[in-house]
Amino acid sequence: MIVARVETFIVTLPRDEPYLGPLGPGESINQRGYVVRSGNGTIYPTVDRSVVVRLTAEDGTIGWGETYGICAPKATCEIINDLLAPVLVGQPVDDAAVIPVIWESLYGLMRVRGCSGGFYGDALAALDIALWDLLGRHVGQPVAVLLGDRRRETIPGYVSGLPAATPAARVALAQRFRSEGHDAFKFAAVVSHGGIVEECAALRAAIGPDAALMVDLHWKFDPADALALARALAPYDLSFIEAPVKPEDVAGLTDVARASPIPVAAGEEWHNLHEARLRLPGAALRYVQPEMGHTGITQFCRIAALAAEVGASLAPHATIGTGIFLAASLHASQTIDRLWRHEWQHSVFSANLRLLETDMAYDNNAYRVPTGPGLGIAPKPAFWAHAEAID
Ligand code: MG
User: Fold this and answer.
1) Same domain (yes/no): 216, 280
2) Is the pTM of this model over 0.85?
């Protein structure tokens, strides 16, 4: 099977309310439709958006891939169309062993110019996912089967984010989820304008002692402040604090992870094994959170293998997408050792299922992995209503 064509699409889905909830103090939407969150200085779009790739083989087989498109999505499309597609077209994809080789060769094209992350890493992820889907469809097997043993039927999840305007409304939302049977929750410190410890205390009281509770610190602190916060949060029995320090502060992450009274989770921004290797062996992280939209399947599995080697559990990240890279994340999660729970972005996942032909679902605190060959997904007409082809 030979890759014949590579196409890119930007899929844009309007939102009633920005991701992470309503605008906070001093926040506004700029002329390009972005908001800078005052809690961590990070820019976010006010729509849901991703970059989707369609590979077509000479025999007509199709493979779908997807990556981040929330910010400057045309940059990722240009990398694919201008740099990667012309090299990928003509390559044979006959077995699973060839896909990591293709990843290495595409990664190497820009090695001396900075290829280890950012938009280039995202572009590689989209193509890698599409190659696995293409091969799975070609041989009539789910991607999980191509990757190895399926260790579990469903993937346990947790409720991520409580998008509401006030701490009281977020507590009420958590209570509603709890009454519906959800048993694990993560809140976003970046919008805890009334105080992180106060919000944590209120949430713990609301969900009771038996539900898991986590907080995403969104890379917001220096190590000393992160540790002080971890000590203040210790009474509330958190499963983990996530992303306590800036991504580039490798030494700080190690210091916090070793000294924190609460387990530390990190890794959603990593693109590949090289980035994981810098942080994992020394950092004493208890949870690693690979994001399929950044890693692709090949690097997701490599990061998972390294995590297992150093004794960390996997808590895969979930972000804004149509569901294609989420499907890839579920296939990979079905096969890996030491899986804890997979993030469930309720405000994204369930709303976007209408875009795809799939039996993927989330119920009883767990994902159902899509069946069928490849990733077990295909865009429906509703998907194309939101997609723009980018040459
Ligand atoms: Mg996070």
Assistant:
1) yes
2) yes
